[in-house]
Every structure is written in structure tokens, then in C-alpha cells.
Amino acid sequence: MPAVVVLGAQWGDEGKGKATDQLGSRVDYVVKFNGGNNAGHTVVVGDEKYALHLLPSGILSPGCVPVIGNGVVVDLEVLFEELEALTSRGVDVSRLLISSSAHVIPSYNRTLDKVTERFLGKRQIGTTGRGIGPTYADKMNRVGIRISDLFDEKILREKVEGALTQKNQVLVKIYNRRAADIDAVTAELLAYAERVRPMVADTSLVLNQALDAGKTLVFEAGQATMLDVDHGTYPFVTSSSATAGGVCTGAGIGPTRVDRVVGVIKAYTTRVGEGPFPTELLDDMGEHLRKTGGEYGVTTGRPRRTGWYDAVIARYSGRVNGLTDLVLTKLDVLTGMEKVPVCVAYDVDGVRHDEMPVDQSAFHHAKPIYEELDGWWEDISHCRTFEELPVNAQRYVLALEEVSGTRISAIGVGPDREATIVRHDLLD
């Protein structure tokens, strides 16, 4: 099974880092193909906890080559902060490869991201303010800066000047901010050139050659399906392709090379930022899920919005990604509940929708139609086989599998790396 895609099947924060990390010890390459440092994932190894933002989680697996693909936007300051933090804890980071075609996040885009979001007021998207959106916009507007540009000072300065010709007008005349200095920005980016040079490669070539050689590759998505710029809850989405199709453009491999697509999904639902959320709980139960599940953003620290499991979204993710498997995480958070509701459909103005409504307005007004399942009280964190789970926990998993339309191949029962029940081998 040489090429496996691992992605979020909800709004992010599903536990993709842990899922990828578990595969990482058995694979040769782990590739990040979209997004930037606007999302984080936590990986727990023994007594050690690692919070990663930009780096692929495979960087924690000895012998695995971590790769940042061309579809990623790279904040160089964050990149080296993370590398230095891992090095100080004894992690070998020497294997990291970065695509020469990946775009760089310049400081002026971080500024624009923050001031634009404040300017929107009540219409805010809920961005992290890390310059992700403006950098992807530069990419599409053909005024972006690539990693390869760092190695030619003349070209780099020309590109910075070209970008700031318009952006400084916006900063000064619309947002009443100071103009960015061309020389200062150029010097800031050039300072990273020699440090990043040893990591830079034609990663598309490297990955295709690895596949030709029968190596096993895992492609991990940043963000998640419902935040995908095309298939998510637009406009409350990220600026990249977080679905399975993004692998081809973001890593430079053809669609025929992908063998399995794994969706990571929580046993309930969370969301960070603005936008519709049909099963959101604004009561004590929502707060219970937040506290018990530790639902606070790894990157921003923002409290996550919480709600019950949404099978409509699960089916939608299965469809747009072509999911072959689901990894169900945080089942242990539901322990101690007498009843656990599951959203199986929506009511939109009196009409039942078993699939995702066609337009955003209908989705915004969707009310969940629930089916209740019996809960369980037993501690499940020690369970390592499906049969060891309490009967009601088993029934819950099987019910989710049926209403979601995709087999559940692994179940997370705790934060530790080993706290997972494997029903089907994801690499088999």
C-alpha cells in the first residue's frame, strides 16, 4: 500500500497528527501538501507531548522522511523555531525536505491578514492572522514569492517590490498603516536563504521516484474537508485544498498513484472560527465536551466550538474525498453519558435533508435530526481490541459506521500514541 492520504473529515482538530504519527513508524515518507502554520496538531509519545504547526508529524518518526510539498505556504521564522525546538529535545530533523516551489509567507502578508480581519468586523472569517490567505491570494495573483526565489537576491527584490506596489497602497490608504519597506523585507527573507538551502529539493520528483521504488508514503492534510476552499462551508474556510484532490496539486503526484484515503473524524464534532455548525452545543454539555476533550486550539489557544457527531458531514466527506477508511478519535471523551445523540439528517424549513444542502443559506438554517444511542460508564482508555470495549461503546461505533457510509478502521480511546484500537490495518 504505497500511497495513503490522511485528512480531516470534519472542521479540523480531529487528531490527524496522531493518526499520521502512528503510520509514520511504518512508512518511508510523510508529506504535508497544503496549508501552513495556521493549524496545529499534538502528538504524544510516551511522556513527551509535541505541538507541531508547520512541520509534518512524520518528523517525529525515526527513519521517516518528512516533506513539505509545493502546496504549502511556509513561514520561515516559524519553520526554524519549530526545528530548533525539536532539536533541543533530541529529535533528528536532518531528513526534512522542502519543495523549491512552496510559497513563502512574507511579513507584510501577516500584517494584511490581521488588519483585514479587524476591518471586516461582524463579517470576520475567523482566520488565525498568520498570513495564510493573503499568501495564497498572491500565489493566484502571480505575485507570490517561492522558496527558490530566496537564492537570487535580484529576483527576490523584484518580486517583493512588485507585490508591495499594490499592497502598500492598501496598507496606507485603506488601513492607515505604515508601508512595508522593500529593502527591509528583502533582507529579512534573504537571511533565511543559506539556512533553508540544504532542505530544498524537487519534492515532486523525489516522491514519484519513491513511489516507483515501492516506498510507502503518507500524505497528511492541514485543516479539513469542511474548511476546503472549494468543498467546505464557504466563505468560512481556509485558503487551500484540504480534501484528497489537493494531494495531486499540492505534492505533485498523479491521482492514479493514490491507493487509500483515510478520513480522521471525532466521536463528536468541533469547529474553530466563524461559520455554520448545525450540531453545536451552547449549553453545559458543550462545555463538558470542551473541557473533557481539551478542545482548545493548538495554534491559537482558542476554545473550540463543540457539538454532537454529524453523520451528514461524514457522508459528505466520504463522497468528496473518496474515503476508504475512517479513524474515529476521542471515543473516551463520551464516557459517562447516559445517552449520546447522533445527527443523522437535517431539517431545513420543514424539509428533511439526508445529504448536504446544495446552498450555503440552507446549510446555515439546518437543524439537526437526532437519533439517541445508549451511553457507557466504563473507562475505555485501556482497551486495545474492539471486543474489550463496553457493549454500548461497540454499538455506538457500529452505528456511526453504518450512518457514515465508511468503515471505521481504527478507534482512539486516549491521547497516548498507543491508545488506539485497530480493526483494519490502514497499510494492508
UniProtKB/TrEMBL annotation:
Example of a GO biological process term: IMP metabolic process
A GO cellular-component term linked to this record: cytoplasm
Binding site for substrate: V298, T299, T300, G301, R302, P303, R304
Pathway: Purine metabolism; AMP biosynthesis via de novo pathway; AMP from IMP: step 1/2
Residue sites binding GTP per the record: 12-18, 40-42, 304, 330-332, 412-414
Pfam families associated with the record: Adenylsucc_synt
Active site: D13 (proton acceptor), H41 (proton donor), K139
Signal peptide: none
Cofactor note: Binds 1 Mg(2+) ion per subunit.
Keywords: Cytoplasm, GTP-binding, Ligase, Magnesium, Metal-binding, Nucleotide-binding, Purine biosynthesis
Compartments, as annotated in UniProt: Cytoplasm
MF-aspect GO terms: adenylosuccinate synthase activity; GTP binding; magnesium ion binding
InterPro entries recorded: Adenylosuccin_syn_GTP-bd, Adenylosuccin_syn_Lys_AS, Adenylosuccinate_synth_dom1, Adenylosuccinate_synth_dom2, Adenylosuccinate_synth_dom3, Adenylosuccinate_synthetase, P-loop_NTPase
Ranges that cross the membrane: none
The keyword Metal-binding is annotated on this UniProt entry: yes
Residues binding Mg(2+): D13, G40
Cofactor(s) required for function per UniProt: Mg(2+)
Function: Plays an important role in the de novo pathway of purine nucleotide biosynthesis. Catalyzes the first committed step in the biosynthesis of AMP from IMP.
Family to which this protein belongs: Belongs to the adenylosuccinate synthetase family.
Assembly and interaction partners: Homodimer.
Name used for this protein in its record: Adenylosuccinate synthetase
Origin species: Occultella aeris
Gene designation per UniProt: purA
